[in-house]
Design goal:
With about 260 residues, this protein is α/β, with parallel strands linked by helices. Helix content is about 45%, strand content about 15%. An 8-stranded parallel beta barrel has the order 1-2-3-4-5-6-7-8, surrounded by 8 helices. Helix 3 links the parallel strand 2 and strand 3. Helix 2 runs parallel beside helix 3 and helix 4 runs parallel beside helix 5. The longest helix has 20 residues. The model has no long low-confidence stretch (mean pLDDT about 100).
């Protein structure tokens, strides 16, 4: 089976970069994949994509060495299994509140006897290659998002969930959980302290910690603080930033 590059990087003690796909189009997915991200995530929770957009976007990403992830909209086994069957190599599950919910997400990503994933990798077996059934349980990454008050209260139990590979920090919803206004790249001391607690708890249980960022400076800081993967930027953010930059230079040069 095609090895999961992110797992290989983690095993080597390396941090990984993640890009975000908010636009529901295979062309933007392909262009992002060609920029050198270690992984890309199709966002079904807050992005513009629906499940029927996932297949062509995964096919576009698959032209490169970038590892394809999907953030499902909810902790729904049917949606998780569908995303895996069409070729996702990683699943991000939002709003995980307790160990039972984390275990439910893990089970949907694993074939028997350790999980409940149904057999039918209609595209995944071709993308993944030989021995998919035998090796998928070890190659597919599943992450639980820690971003609610209840999730923080049950952090230790969530991180101890057998088969969970990583916890993923959703900074805006985490801000809500801490009584703070939502903010990307939040420098608030309470927010930073909580993120570090999540990282330390994950590492205590032998799993990885991932930080969702909005820019390179904060992302670099997260890596230097010991996070194992950072979400750097999205297709939409890059488009907006590039347009604003060029418009600003035009106005400055013609005023």
């Amino acid at each position: 089976m095609r090895p999961n590059k992110i797992k290989e990087m983690w095993a080597a003690g390396q941090s990984a970069s993640l890009g975000w796909l908010s636009i529901s189009h295979s062309f933007t997915a392909e262009m992002m994949a060609r920029q050198g991200f270690d992984a890309l995530c199709i966002d079904l929770q807050h992005g513009m994509s629906e499940m029927n957009d996932v297949l062509p976007m995964l096919q576009a990403i698959s032209q490169t060495d970038t590892v394809p992830f999907v953030r499902v909209a909810w902790n729904d086994p049917a949606a998780i299994m569908k995303a895996l069957d069409v070729g996702a190599y990683g699943i991000i599950v939002p709003l995980v509140n307790n160990a039972e919910e984390a275990a439910k997400a893990v089970a949907a990503c694993r074939y028997a006897p350790v999980g409940m994933r149904s057999s039918g990798p209609i595209r995944a077996a071709h993308y993944g290659g030989a021995n998919y059934f035998e090796e998928a349980n070890d190659q597919i990454i599943v992450m639980a998002m820690i971003e609610t008050k209840e999730g923080l209260e049950n952090l230790d139990a969530i991180c101890a969930t057998p088969g969970l590979d990583a916890v993923y920090i959703g900074p805006a919803d985490l801000s809500y959980a801490l009584g703070l206004p939502p903010q990307a790249d939040n420098p608030n001391p309470l927010h930073m302290e909580t993120c570090d607690k999540i990282r330390d708890t994950a590492h205590k249980h032998g799993i990885k910690a991932v930080m969702h960022c909005a820019g390179a400076e904060f992302a670099a800081g997260a890596i230097n603080r010991g996070f194992d993967m950072v979400m750097l930027t999205s297709d939409l953010a890059c488009m907006i930033a590039g347009a604003k930059d060029q418009l600003g230079k035009l106005k400055a040069g013609t005023s």
